[in-house]
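Possible regression after last week's pipeline update?

I re-ran a chain I had predicted before the update to compare outputs. Posting the input and the new output here so someone can diff against the archived version. Not blocking, just want to make sure nothing changed silently.
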Amino acid sequence: MTELALRHATYEDLLKIPDHLVAELIDGELYTSPRPGSRCARANSVLGATLSNFFDSDDRGPDGWWIVNQPELHLAGNALVPDIAGWRRERVPVYPDAPAFEFAPDWCCEVQSPSSGFVDRVKKRPLYAKHGVQHVWIVDPIAQLIEVYRLESGRWVLAGNYGGDDVVRIEPFEEFELALSRLWIEPAAK
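New output (post-update):
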C-alpha cells in the first residue's frame, strides 16, 4: 500500500480539488461531486430564495432565520457543504463573519442528485444528528419529492413526505405555505 492509501484526507487535500467540483471531508474521507444539474439547481435556487425572502429578513427579529446556500460547515474535523442550511436567530443572533461555520445549523436541506444520494443520506445525515441539527430535508427534484426528518432523542424520525404540486407547510417553517410546483422544472405527473 502507498502512503496516500494509508493516511486520512485532510482539509489541505480538500483545498486542492478543482472549483468545478463540490468537495467535502467526512470522517477523514474526501468526497467530490459535480456541480448540480439544472433540475437540482432549480430546486435549490427557488427553495433557498423563497425561504430566505420569508424568514431571513431583519424585521423578523429573533423569530427569523439565517438562510444560506452551500455554507461550509466545520464540525469536529469534518467539512460539510449542505445545499441550504438555516440557523435560528434566537440561537445565533449575529451572522458570523468567517470563512466557514464552526457550529451546526438548526436545519439542513440536501437536494438529491444521482451522484449525491449516498453521501447525503448515509454519510452526512448521521453527522447532522450527532451535531444536533434538528431538521433535515431531502429534496428529490427528479421524483419531485421532499422527505422531512426531525431529530428526536438523537435519532431521525420521518416527519413527512410531500411531493408533486402540493401546497404545504413543512416543519420547521410551518408558518409559510410552499407551492412545491415552483421547485420543479416541469409539472408533476398526475
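Follow-up from reviewer: compared with the archived run. Residues 25 and 113 are 19 Å apart (CA to CA). Marking as no regression found.
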